[in-house]
Amino acid sequence: MKAHDGNPLTNFYQLGLDVLALCLFNGSYSATEVAEFFNHYKKNYYFGGQFSVDTGAMAVLALTCVNRSLTNEQIKADKNLKKIDELISFLVEKIMSEKKENGLIGNTFSTGVAMQALFVSSNYYNESEWDCQQTLDTILQEISQGVFNNPTAAAQILPPLMGRTYLDVEDCPYVSGLDTFNISNHVPESERSNSSSLIMVYYSVVINETYSINVTVPNGSVFLDVMKAARKKNETTFGFTMEQSSWGPYITSVQGLYANNNKRTYWELLSDGKALSQGVGSYVVHEEENLEIRWSTY
Ligand code: B12
């Protein structure tokens, strides 16, 4: 991070995960350094100027774990450690400020980690500030509509539904059944719309210039189907590459221009000018929608 203007080559969400794992499983780390990193580089809680609820929430989980393992003597001896407390308080306030009218915190997919963070930090806010039941009701409604079919999305929302958080994870000496546990991203046919009818959508690649095309795809298609249809018509302008990740396919390049962590560049997905909260493999497109993939920085 020090060699890259304070930017981690992974991201702060992963730094949170790392510290959490070290803390839960008695790894060796320096609490003073944790306090320093999470405090000093506050810009990393933001992507493109927008506070990342997922990132802040993961930091709250990690910092709470570290905080709980400190003794009062340690805190007295090292004034940096007091900062952990201040930082949790700052992050909880930011997370609270991202609460929406329907109870979601940030967006649908950050709400699971945000709920976990609020469960472990109840000393930092008043009961009246968060209607947990409302959040739960909205989430349950979304689940019934299949929004959490993605296994990674499910893994982030499941603990709070059971009243648990990642802090409850314990080192299991023996885990049974995992070898036969089969995770599939397959969406049942019945959940896709009637694919015999066709819809037309607008699709653009935006770098400095905008390259646009109209494509026709079966009703119920996802963003990726649109990209493939455009590529079929013009490989040079609409050619792209992707990588599989835990969330599904992640777009790595368009027109040969590759996303780069060192430069904090990526391909952003938008519909009618608004950033999407799902990836190309999940987002179902609609008739006459303006889809866009834009060269962006975070
Ligand atoms: C960091 C991050 C990013 C970074 C990734 C680059 C980097 N250097 O880290 C940036 C800012 C570039 C990014 C981009 C996007 N992201 Co993002 N991202 C995250 C975040 C905060 C942490 C991911 C992580 O590091 N996990 C831990 C590591 C260990 O797991 P991992 O699987 O190896 O992580 C990799 C993948 O997750 C991948 N990745 C990141 N975002 C996304 C999104 C999708 C759809 C896919 C397939 C992969 C992917 O990059 C990670 C680092 O290599 C998560 C939050 C969360 N709750 O998980 C959101 C999150 C995964 N992202 C999300 C979204 C929607 C996107 C975008 C589609 C946004 C957009 N409108 O363009 C784009 C991806 C577009 C594309 N090119 O395909 C959603 C996914 C929801 C869903 N149901 O699909 C999440 C959950 C945030 C949210 N609450 O909305 N993201």
Automatic annotation (TrEMBL):
What's one GO-annotated cellular component? extracellular space
Keywords for this entry? Cobalt, Cobalt transport, Disulfide bond, Ion transport, Secreted, Signal, Transport
Q: What is its main location?
A: secreted
Q: Which GO terms describe its molecular function?
A: cobalamin binding
Disulfide bond positions:
23-65
Q: Where does cyanocob(III)alamin bind?
A: 10-14, 54, 107, 156, 250-251, 267-269, 276, 298
- Report what the protein is called: Transcobalamin-1
**Domain Transcobalamin-like C-terminal residues, every copy:** 220-296
Q: Which organism is it from?
A: Sciurus carolinensis (Eastern gray squirrel)
Which protein family is named in the record? Belongs to the eukaryotic cobalamin transport proteins family.
Task: State the Pfam families in the record.
Answer: Cobalamin_bind (PF01122), DUF4430 (PF14478)
One GO process term, biological-process aspect = cobalamin transport
Q: Which residues form a coiled coil?
A: none
Show the InterPro entries listed in the entry. Cbl-bd_prot, Cobalamin_Transport, Transcobalamin-like_C
Where located? Answer: Secreted
